[in-house]
């Protein structure tokens, strides 16, 4: 049976469309969600992390999009829900929790360890943290690592200071302290090093925690995880990330190991919703 010229042209067109679709599908970059701790508002996070997502997209050939949580309450509430995100950027306690409960794989961590410092105004010079029991302390909301450290300092549930935890960034805590609305604040030590404020006195500094880590969901293919790890270990060669690294207090990333965060999830045990 002969095929008419019109039908032959139609078949050629159909084949061409199928080939184009197959090529387009093979060249399509997968989309991966990146969820950092909500230490910034979603709008601020988009501006801060945007260069990192562009860098990872370019370095890996995949597509990365920001999937921010509105606040710490929703971040903690949803952390164990399946398929919430593909990559996260977490402090030590959340990192250990994700590793043990969700099988997340830590890729890299900030090379510098994390500590938190309890700062007060000059009225408390030479005093111990218990002197703040009738005072207001500015903090990021529970269960941020700073708030968890406060719970260790003030472990007696009967004797608690007035913890003001409505801040949406650490700079909000600083503003509250500087304005006199709070007599003290819990603050990342590395951020304090740039302040050199003579009106501050240190009452307590926490132990060291391994630096915050970038983790990958076990659903992310291994080759993609490896590309992301390699790209992050090479951020020193990416001048477009200079402002981001400065903002996050990162000199460089190093390879992360689950052992770096062993048992840190215990810091979350006092918060509602914790699962062993």
Please tag this protein with its features.
276 residues, alpha/beta, D-Maltodextrin-Binding Protein, domain 2, 2 domains, six-stranded mixed beta sheet, five-stranded mixed beta sheet, 36% helix, 18% strand, globular
Name given to the CATH architecture of the largest domain: 3-Layer(aba) Sandwich
CATH topology of the largest domain: D-Maltodextrin-Binding Protein, domain 2
What count of structural domains? 2
CATH class of the largest domain: Alpha Beta
H/E series: HEHEHEHEEEHEHEHEEHHE
- Total E-strand runs: 11
Largest sheet: 6 strands, mixed
Q: How do the strands of the widest beta sheet line up side by side?
A: 2-1-3-10-4-11
- Rg, alpha carbons: 24 Å
- Compute the average pLDDT: 90
DSSP strand content: 15-25%
pLDDT < 50 stretches: 15-27
Oligomer: single chain
Q: Name the helicity range.
A: 25-40%
CATH superfamily of the largest domain, called what? Answer: Periplasmic binding protein-like II
Tell me the overall shape: globular
End-to-end C-alpha gap? 72 Å
Helical segment tally? 9
Report on this model:
This protein has 276 residues and is an alpha/beta fold. It has 2 domains: 144 residues, Periplasmic binding protein-like II (D-Maltodextrin-Binding Protein, domain 2), CATH 3.40.190; 90 residues, 3-Layer(aba) Sandwich (D-Maltodextrin-Binding Protein, domain 2), CATH 3.40.190.10. Helix content is 36%, strand content 18%. It is built from 9 helices and 11 strands. The strands form 2 sheets. It has a 6-stranded mixed beta sheet, sandwiched between helices. A 5-stranded mixed beta sheet has the order 7-6-8-5-9. Strand 6, helix 5 and strand 7 form a beta-alpha-beta unit. Helix 2 packs across helix 8. The chain is globular. The N and C termini lie far apart (72 Å). 35% of the residues are buried.
């Amino acid at each position: 049976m002969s095929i008419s010229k019109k039908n032959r042209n139609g078949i050629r067109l159909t084949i061409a469309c199928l080939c184009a679709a197959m090529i387009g599908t093979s060249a399509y970059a997968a989309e991966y969600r990146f969820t950092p701790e909500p230490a910034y508002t979603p709008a601020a996070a988009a501006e801060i992390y945007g260069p990192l997502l562009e860098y990872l997209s370019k370095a890996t050939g995949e597509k990365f999009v920001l999937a921010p949580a509105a606040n710490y309450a929703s971040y903690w509430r949803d952390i164990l829900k399946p398929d919430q995100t593909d990559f996260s950027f977490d402090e030590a306690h959340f990192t250990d929790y994700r590793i043990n409960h969700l099988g997340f794989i830590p890729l890299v961590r900030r090379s510098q360890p994390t500590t938190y410092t309890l700062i007060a105004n000059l009225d408390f010079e030479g005093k111990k943290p218990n002197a703040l029991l009738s005072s207001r302390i500015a903090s990021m909301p529970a269960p941020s690592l700073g708030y968890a450290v406060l719970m260790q300092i003030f472990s007696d549930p009967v004797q608690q200071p007035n913890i003001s935890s409505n801040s949406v960034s650490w700079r909000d805590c600083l503003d509250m302290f500087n304005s006199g609305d709070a007599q003290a604040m819990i603050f990342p030590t590395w951020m304090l090093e740039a302040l050199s404020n003579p009106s501050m006195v240190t009452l307590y500094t926490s132990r060291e925690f391994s630096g915050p880590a970038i983790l990958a969901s076990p659903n992310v293919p291994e080759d993609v995880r490896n590309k992301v790890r390699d790209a992050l270990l090479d951020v020193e060669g990416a001048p477009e990330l200079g402002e981001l690294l400065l903002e996050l207090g990162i000199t460089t990333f190093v390879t992360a190991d689950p052992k770096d965060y062993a048992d840190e999830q215990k810091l979350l045990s006092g918060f509602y919703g914790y699962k062993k």
